[in-house]
Design a protein that fits this description.
The chain is of the alpha+beta class and 289 residues long. The chain has helices spanning 2-10, 17-20, 54-64, 73-78, 111-116, 126-142, 176-179, 193-196, 204-219, 230-238, 253-262, 274-282, and strands at residues 21-29, 33-40, 45-52, 88-93, 99-104, 108-110, 145-146, 155-158, 163-165, 172-173. The strands form 3 sheets. Strands 1-2-3-5-4 form a 5-stranded antiparallel beta sheet. A 3-stranded antiparallel beta sheet has the order 6-8-9. A two-stranded antiparallel sheet has the order 7-10.
Length: 289
């Protein structure tokens, strides 16, 4: 995989940052990248510019995807077009050998922030938000990819009620090569048991992560202990999730059953597809959640 990455970095014309982009303002930083609001002189518009850390990206590719032909993040992101998935206009390599992605600028807030602050803008909109996010994730699956890091931090909610799924740094094609057992990289609080066990995986790991996200959005809590410890990971495998009605007694029985099916430890007992999950959300009784 590292050789493939180096081949990608070496081909094509490299872009000089200050000749392509102007008015850069840092608006975010992840573990593997920096995010800027910028004016793209080539496209003639304000964009979100994501620049991947070269050394960290190489280490990730070597550790997680060694020997696999993983497409670069930009190649995956630029192929996706859906109202609830962030639009990526372009991707390439800077003269510094750093990969970059040019995305639509989204004036929004991470769903994680809204949950943790119990933001009043969520009131009465939680099922709507979940339905939109579910439609976006279903589209990603239909396009042939597994997101692998679906969680509230990777969902932007806009001021006008829109929503965008972001961050395809860990996304992989849904093919036998990438469904094989491997490294359990991702956000551990949302990680499916089969990924923790290093068993074969498929798009149902995203369904599990979606159900945990739904649980957290509806209750304000995670279904298991949140610490990053071996004991917490084992609890995810061996213990059922806490009944969401302990935090939210007014939850409808249909919602509770849906959450529990989505978080089933055995993927064979889990909801079979995101399309099915979305249909179930749409069929829920109209409640003011």
């Amino acid at each position: 995989m590292l050789q493939k990455l180096r081949e990608f970095l070496s081909r094509g014309k490299k872009v000089e940052l200050n000749k392509r982009f102007a008015s850069l303002v840092r608006i975010g930083q992840g573990s593997m990248s920096k995010l800027y609001k910028a004016h793209d002189l080539q496209l003639g518009r304000t964009v979100a510019l994501k620049i991947l850390d070269k050394e960290k990206t190489e280490r990730l590719m070597a550790r997680v995807f060694q020997g696999k032909k993983k497409p670069p993040e930009g190649e995956i992101a630029v192929s996706l077009r859906h109202p609830y998935v962030v639009t990526t206009y372009d991707h390439g390599v800077l003269t510094t050998d750093e990969q970059f992605l040019v995305m639509e600028y989204v004036d929004g807030v991470g769903l994680n922030v809204l949950i943790h602050t119990n933001d009043p803008s969520l009131d009465g909109r939680r099922i709507e938000i979940l339905t939109k996010a579910g439609e976006g994730l279903a589209y990603i699956h239909e396009a042939g990819y597994i997101h692998r890091d679906f969680n509230p931090r990777n969902i932007l909610v806009t001021r006008d009620g829109g929503l965008k799924i972001i961050d395809f740094g860990l996304a992989v094609p849904n093919t036998p090569e990438f469904r094989a057992p491997g490294n359990r990289t991702g956000s551990k609080e949302y990680m499916a048991p089969e990924l923790i066990r290093r068993h074969p995986t498929d798009e149902r790991i995203d369904i599990f992560s979606f159900a945990v996200t739904a649980y957290e959005l509806l209750t304000g809590h995670l279904p298991w202990e949140a610490h990053d410890s071996q004991q917490a990971l084992l609890a995810r495998i061996n213990l059922p999730p806490r009944d969401p009605r302990e935090y939210r007694p007014d939850l409808d029985d249909d919602i509770v059953r849906l959450l529990m099916r989505g978080m089933a430890s055995n993927p064979q007992r889990r909801i079979r597809s995101m399309k099915e999950f979305v249909r179930a959300l749409q069929a829920l009784p109209k409640q003011d959640y």
